Amino acid sequence: MLRVNKLLAKISVAIALVLLLLWLVTPLWHSAVFSLFVIFWCVITSSALYRVTPLFKNRNPVEELIKRDVNQLALISLAGLFDFKRKAEFVLIGQIKTISVGEGSIVIEDINSQRLHAVLSVSKAEIISHLHIILSARERQKITITS
């Protein structure tokens, strides 16, 4: 996810620089619509830049995004600007068939072939480490965890 966020930040900054240059050099700054669009793009750029800082990762630890209840797992996915998150999706631990862990993402498939996907702010190693903490050895034996 960090790689994608870095790419989005670079693209967003490049577009923001072009827009600001157009706004300053041409008479487009007289246009209220274009000025609002430049301000809107500055908000998007600041969000993209924030997502590549350590502060973003510290404010969104894996413990807050993958939670365990008595018999179910809750996944909270990052979405949108800044620290916005989606509603938690729940799956019963006894019905989990496979867990696929990617760099900054996790996909859980249950016995009914229902798939839950979450985008996280942490690395693959941190996700796997957290899964080993919250799942018992017996539960990990029943679930196929792939990376």
Mean pLDDT comes to: 85
Please state how the strands of the largest beta sheet are arranged side by side. Answer: 6-5-4-7
Low-pLDDT runs: none
Strand content: 15-25%
Order of helices and strands: HHHHEEEEEEHHE
Distance between the termini: 15 Å
Structural class: alpha+beta
Helix content: 40-55%
Could you give a short account of the major beta sheet?
4 strands, mixed
Number of strands: 7
Number of helices: 6
Shape descriptor? elongated
> Could you tell me the radius of gyration in angstroms?
20 Å
Q: Key terms for this structure?
A:
single chain; 147 residues; alpha+beta; four-stranded mixed beta sheet; three-stranded antiparallel beta sheet; 7 strands; 48% helix; 22% strand; elongated
Polypeptide structure, described:
By secondary structure, the chain is α+β, with helices and mostly antiparallel strands. The chain has six helices and seven strands, in the order ααααββββββααβ. It has helices at residues 2-25, 32-50, 54-59, 62-65, 124-134, 137-142; strands spanning 66-68, 72-75, 89-92, 96-102, 105-110, 115-119, 144-146. A four-stranded mixed beta sheet has the order 6-5-4-7. Strands 1-2-3 form a three-stranded antiparallel beta sheet. Strand 4 (96-102) and strand 5 form a beta hairpin. Helix 1 (2-25) runs antiparallel to helix 2. The longest helix is centred in the N-terminal third of the chain and has 24 residues, at 2-25. The chain is elongated. The relative contact order is 0.14. The model has no long low-confidence stretch (mean pLDDT 85).
